[in-house]
User: Fold Guanine deaminase from Natronocella acetinitrilica.
Amino acid sequence: MAYLVRGTIVHCPREAGGQPTLETFDDGVMLVDDGHVQRIGPATTLLRSDLKDLPVEDHSGSMILPGLIDTHIHYPQTDIIASYGEQLLEWLNRYTFPAEAAFGDAEVAAETAAFFIDELLRNGTTTALVLGTVHAQSVDAIFAAAAARDMRIAAGKVLMDRHAPDNLLDTAESGYRDSQALIERWHGQGRLLYAITPRFAPTSSEAQLAATGRLARAYPETFVHTHVAENSSEVAWVRALFPDERSYLDVYDRYGLVRERSVFAHCIHLDDDDRRRMAEQGAAAAFCPTSNLFLGSGLFDYAQAREAGMRVGLATDVGGGTSFSMLRTAAEAYKVSALHGQPLSAATMLHLCTRAGASALYLDDRIGGFDPGMEADFIVVNPAATPLTGRRDRAATTIEERLFALFTLGDDRHITATYLRGVRQMPAA
Ligand code: GUN
Ligand code: ZN
Assistant:
């Protein structure tokens, strides 16, 4: 069914090289038909055209943005978000592994997955690349919850056969077999996509990394999803475990895991060679600023990554990250970039949350913008949802200034509706 959405329409058009830009219609209309974007344009023109008799969802006064894309998040860590006082390796042992052990229970997985999907949608996130736990049923649960909403989710079972509690370990063989069965069951069903997910090099034996590489070659359309170069103790541990490798990234590369549709969370402690290789081989970085600050990991250098030609998406990394909100996450990304002396523009912040994420996931022909034919995942944002943001928004004179204040001050209170393939999900239609 065709309908029109009216409001201030803003998206980042396809990048013609150089810096991201904004396309804005202050009083704009988007034509949605059969779950896809057909056109956007000024209301004065489109409402007088052959479209004038279509129903209009009027969000005048609010912004209509593409759905936000979170390129790295752990749904089983929902309940340990904001756990005190540790850096990565201690945090994994103290909080993460015990929490993930509970996902051997299908009911825990289903209940958490349903909450998690709703929380993403409440925050305006319409696509996410999600880690499960080592348990195959944790992935069944997240895919089932996403399918119930027609949500485009990529997810995978964690592969982990050493250096973790026994009840969280698979083996090289069982990890391969279970992942393959999940790919066959879920990849390409509706909007769902599979991500082959070795947790990180320290928790996979060489036999498991080799098996994972074989799987990644056998299913090139799936994602590879892991962590790299997040924390200095972790990097030192990888050096000790893999003394023959030049770098942490090289461990993955040796097994064929640095390829198109590979997404590496963090990428803080990489060198020029690593960055060049990621760019040349089409792999992407997930920039996780709230996590990197919270776990004391370090400062990702976005400008350096882009100069090297890397694909970069933005990510919450809950539960190491401290917010489901991509607005909050973009605000922290801005602060990290400011520390590097290269502050992100408002257009780049929107780009990172939308089209850049889509491009990191090789989905930019389908999501991340309002090009004709794209899937109609979009959000309605009230930039004046609180007294302060209302005041700040009224003081702004340009769309860049309004967007920048929204990203810097905004959160879930500012997301007033979330649509997936043209159907409103939050608040429920
Ligand atoms: N490295 C390996 N596992 C994890 C995890 O669960 N969270 C983060 N932030 N880093 C990791
Ligand atoms: Zn993570």
User: Anything to note?
Assistant: Residues 3-66+370-426 form a domain with the Urease, subunit C; domain 1 fold (CATH 2.30.40.10). The pocket of zinc ion (ligand 2) is lined by residues 72, 74, 227, 265, 317, 320 (CB under 6 Å).
